[in-house]
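Appendix C: a fully annotated inverse folding record. The material below is reproduced so that readers can follow the format used throughout the book. The structure is listed first as tokens, followed by the designed sequence.
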């Protein structure tokens, strides 16, 4: 059964960033794989290959509700800090603050929370103490939220759509940046 957990619009997430000037980005390592599957559900997540029968013990990307379940978990874990100094989008976490002192407090809170909940970050994909951060296809700094220049370049070099499906794909892509396109 498809779970309809509401993923927030990116625009709505970014509205809370006004007044911030210090950022840290935390990427959870193999996010879905950090969630164990209920014991009774393990047999229905099995698969066979020529090498034998295998059963997933953890949630996989293949499960229909994996993004919804993980987003729900992260929102429950970070609930006390959402809309205050944390944005969570599936396995991406953005900690934002007004200044360095505040940011140090915020980072300690979130890192302790992740440790307590046994949610592990992939250090090579994390960035700390930034004046400007790339997050969810945007660049965020003290002056606001901007389109990532690499995304603008990709959109400009996109081949002209020739089929209805290609038109729909292109509109979805540019629609993601609707707040920056006058009259969209």
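Designed amino acids, in order:
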């Amino acid at each position: 059964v498809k779970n309809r957990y509401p993923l927030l619009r990116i625009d709505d997430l970014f509205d809370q960033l006004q007044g911030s000037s210090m950022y840290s980005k935390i990427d959870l390592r193999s996010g879905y794989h950090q969630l164990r599957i209920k014991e009774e559900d393990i047999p229905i997540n099995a698969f066979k290959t020529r090498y034998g029968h295998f059963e997933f013990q953890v949630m996989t990307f293949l499960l229909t509700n994996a993004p919804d379940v993980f987003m729900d978990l992260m929102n429950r874990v970070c609930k006390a800090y959402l809309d205050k100094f944390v944005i969570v989008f599936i396995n991406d976490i953005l900690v934002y603050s007004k200044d360095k002192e505040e940011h140090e407090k915020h980072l300690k809170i979130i890192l302790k929370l992740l440790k307590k909940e046994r949610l592990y970050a992939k250090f090579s994909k994390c960035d700390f103490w930034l004046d400007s951060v790339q997050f969810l296809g945007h660049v965020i700094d003290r002056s606001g939220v901007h389109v990532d220049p690499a995304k603008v370049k990709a959109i400009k070099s996109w081949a002209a759509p020739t089929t209805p499906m290609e038109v729909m794909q292109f509109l979805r892509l540019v629609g993601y940046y609707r707040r920056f396109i006058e009259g969209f």
